Amino acid sequence: MTIRTGPGSADAKVRVTNETYGRILTTNKHFHQALDENPDTPVLLWNCFGSYSGVRNNESAAQVLHDTGVDRDIYSPKPLVGTAYGSYEVDGRKHEFSALVVDTSPGARYMSGDEPFAHYPAPRTDNRQGGDTGDG
Question: Is 30 helix (H, G, I), strand (E, B) or coil?
């Protein structure tokens, strides 16, 4: 993630554990604003290394979110879903973008079933059953 270390300072790129990433989200006002504005939608937990090399790193971030009251299903990309970043300039103004990309090459195989996303169901306080956790 990129952080600003102080007023007028440059951005610094840092790596945090996925558990810490979850804790950062729980205190982020923009994250909570998005939850409030979209009350019936799941969360897409998207970060640079969430499913890198098949490791289910975002499971710990999802657990932190659920433990702190985020009562949404959480989805996280599996290894064949990648992150693409780029920038372009229009009329002298730089624009940056990020996107999810899926490997659809003929030899590509998902490591955990056929779904491109792991599913971390919201904790259920009633008798409803959660969905597939994507464990394969």
Answer: helix
Rounded distance, CA 58 to CA 74, Å?
A: 10
Beta strands in 37-113 (DSSP E): 43-44, 74-77, 81-90, 93-102
The one-letter amino acid at 39: P
Q: What are phi and psi of 98, to 5 degrees?
A: -140, 150
CB burial class (10 A; 0-12, 13-18, 19+) of residue 46?
Answer: middle
Residue pLDDT, tens place only, 76-125: 887 677 777 788 899 999 988 877 777 766 666 555 456 778 889 999 76
Look at residues 6, 7, 8, 27 and name the one whose alpha carbon lies nearest to residue 16. 27
- pTM for the full model? 0.67
Distance CA 118, CA 134 (A): 5
